[in-house]
């Protein structure tokens, strides 16, 4: 279940970059709304996964997977915090919500979510978090 839910913030944060670029190219305000909705969805799923990962990290704190799990939780938490700042930026008026700073936040949150996903799926000790 964890693996399935982890895919949602990754995809939603990545698609936020695409909708921000579409807004910057067309100036159609609906693209800014799409970005805000995608960010909120990523934050909701990221919060659920973050709580799940924190509980598992607490249970495995004395085990050998502690460092890998802590890096995974840190990357996930950082992606969530950057996404939250991005949500506040995108909640502004559409003309000022997606600019250089908004697009940078979207790219950064997408990269952090991708890094957390890569770390979760490629590290055998972190894959145990899902179980």
TrEMBL record:
<feature type="transmembrane region" description="Helical">
    <location>
        <begin position="35"/>
        <end position="58"/>
    </location>
</feature>
<feature type="transmembrane region" description="Helical">
    <location>
        <begin position="100"/>
        <end position="121"/>
    </location>
</feature>
<feature type="transmembrane region" description="Helical">
    <location>
        <begin position="70"/>
        <end position="88"/>
    </location>
</feature>
<dbReference type="Pfam" id="PF09990">
    <property type="entry name" value="DUF2231"/>
</dbReference>
<keyword id="KW-0812">Transmembrane</keyword>
<feature type="domain" description="DUF2231">
    <location>
        <begin position="2"/>
        <end position="119"/>
    </location>
</feature>
<keyword id="KW-0472">Membrane</keyword>
<keyword id="KW-1133">Transmembrane helix</keyword>
<protein>
    <recommendedName>
        <fullName>DUF2231 domain-containing protein</fullName>
    </recommendedName>
</protein>
<dbReference type="InterPro" id="IPR019251">
    <property type="entry name" value="DUF2231_TM"/>
</dbReference>
